[in-house]
Amino acid sequence: MTSIVETGPTADRIETLDVLRGVALFGILLMNVTGMGLPDAYANPANAGGAEGANLWAWIVTEVGFEGTQRALFSMLFGASVVLFMTRLEGSGRRDAGDIYVRRNLWLVAFGMVNAFILLWSGDILYMYGIIALVVVPFRTLGTRALLAIGVAGLLLGAAWTGKETWQNLETYAAYEQAVAEQPDPEERTAAQEEAVAGWEGLAGDYVSTPGEVAETIAHHTSGYGEAFLSLAHESSGWHGWGTYRYFFDVFGMMLIGMALFKGGVLTLARPVWLYWAMMIVGYAIGLTVNIAEVRWLIDHQFSAVAFVQVAPSYDLGRLAMTLGHVGALLLFVRSGILGWLRRSLAAVGQMAVTNYLAHSLIALIVFILFAQFGQWERHQLYYYVLAIWVAQLILSPLWLRHFRFGPVEWLWRWLTYLKRPPMRRASAASADPAPTPGKQG
């Protein structure tokens, strides 16, 4: 399989990567908004925001179609960008390419810390990407098949970790059931039985929240910036710390798969059209089957904690298949050349991905914390908010790039990376980049 990188780097942006990145950015907001605006409702709609009617259908659509897929797509694109960045940098003859790359990703870590501890988004992903990017870069010179094999192996390790957790959690639940069956009266239980009950109840709290816990979370988020900081800083520290270990193989594996798809020409539309149709059809056939079965199980068991544990082993299969389907469908969309205005706007959103991502956190901080709207909206209402941000960024991103070369954060990031201030404004309207073709964006 011929690598597109063998022809040497170009100065052009690759439109497919920018479009996919723009879509992934919007998809991440679609999923993150429940964490930004509701207490403990990301996975379990019964905790807050409503689990009937429009609210239930909002959860079903996002759970079946998008859960985990946008993070996977974003990770793939990050891996592709590692190959592209280093190929162009090394092709320019710079001897400090390694220093530049490390500096670039350490600043990404810093942006992640700002996102988590200043903008108060406890689900920040930039920190984790910046750390794992330092691990994946030595793999960039491997061939497509080797990258794909190692990436899949990483995902399998992550799935094995999930399987081990599921087995342990089900054992904990079995011990709980046995203790309750042996002694229904809490006052008469032995120390071992009490320990078994407490073990499961502590674990179940990760999935099902009491009304008191929900009210406490809302109070922490709506009592001013200081109170919200104290509450969310603890969550962010845990996510940046343990979360990086727990989901290392997930992100690592998808980054390497992204490298493989880029070097193999899949992400640049260099492969036959039948491949993209196959990705879409096979991916959706598997993904929809698995995800609908999971959703059906959770609804039938009334979103119980044990039901969430029971569906965990099939989670990775469903989301990875759906990601494959999404990539195939999106690449067919770009290849078709239809809706050029939308394609160009999405590419502009993707070109300003870090700026737009941090803007999501800033807007959420203002609306849900400073204006105390956290926990006040129903689940389906949050998606009107998401739609408004999508429309705004689809309009503002291309307008900004008509006059400026970079997004504001991308400009700062580039300055900090190269230690030289880049020009921000375009010299004139005539110097603006030409309209992109389905293969390239100028």
Descriptive report:
This protein has one domain (4-431). With 442 residues, the chain is mainly alpha-helical. Helix content is 71%, strand content 0%. It contains 17 helices and no strands. Residues 1-11 and 429-442 have low confidence and may be disordered. The chain has helices spanning 15-37, 53-65, 69-91, 97-117, 126-136, 144-182, 191-204, 211-221, 225-246, 248-263, 273-300, 305-311, 315-336, 340-351, 353-370, 379-403, 408-418.
Structure keywords:
442 residues
Rg:
23 Å
pLDDT under 50 segments (min length 5)? 1-11, 429-442
Strand content: under 5%
Number of strands: 0
Number of helices: 17
Concise account of the structure shown:
Helix content is 71%, strand content 0%.
Q: What's the SSE blueprint?
A:
Blueprint (H helix, E strand, L loop, with lengths): L14 H23 L15 H13 L3 H23 L5 H21 L8 H11 L7 H39 L8 H14 L6 H11 L3 H22 L1 H16 L9 H28 L4 H7 L3 H22 L3 H12 L1 H18 L8 H25 L4 H11 L24
Helix pairs in contact: 1-3, 1-13, 1-14, 1-15, 1-16, 2-11, 2-16, 3-10, 3-13, 4-5, 4-17, 5-10, 6-7, 6-10, 11-13, 14-16
